[in-house]
Amino acid sequence: MKKSLKYKYRNELEVLPFLLPGFILLLIFIFYPIAKNFYMSLSDYNIFLDKMNTFTGIDNYIRVFKDKMFWDAFINTAAYAVVTILPQMAIGLILAIIINTKIKGSFLFRILFYIPVITSWLIVSLIFRYLFESGDAGLINYLLLKANLIETSISWFSNRWTANAVIWILAVWKGIGWNMVVFLAGLQGIDRSYYEAADIDGANIIQKVRFITIPLLKPVTFFIMTNLLVGSFNVFTQVYVMTNGAPMGRTQVLLSYMYKVAFTDFQIGYSSALSVVVGVFIFILAMGQQKFLNMGYKEGQL
Amino acid sequence: MTLKKLLVGLFSLLLVAGLAGCKADPKPVSGKVLFWHTYSEGEEALFLAEVVPLFNEAYPEIEIESVRMPYDGLKQQVITAYTGNVAPDVMRMDIVWVPEFAKQGILEEVSAFDEFSDLKDNFFAGSLSTNFYNGKYYGLPLNTNTKVAVYSKAVLAELGMTEAPATWDEMIALARTLKASDDRWGLTPQGFGPWGFLPYFWTLGGKVTDDEYSVATGYLNSADSIAAVQQLYDYYKEGLIGPAMFGEQPDAWGGMAGGNYLWIDDGPWYFSIIGQTAIDSTIVSTIPEGKGGSVSVVGGEDLVMFNKSENKDASWTFMQFMMSDEVQKIMAKTGMIPVTQSAADSLTDVPAYVATYIEQLKTAQPRTPSASWGSIEQVLSLAIESVFRDEKTVTEALNDAATEIDALLK
Question: B385 contacts in A (CB within 8 Å)?
Answer without folding.
Answer: 247-248
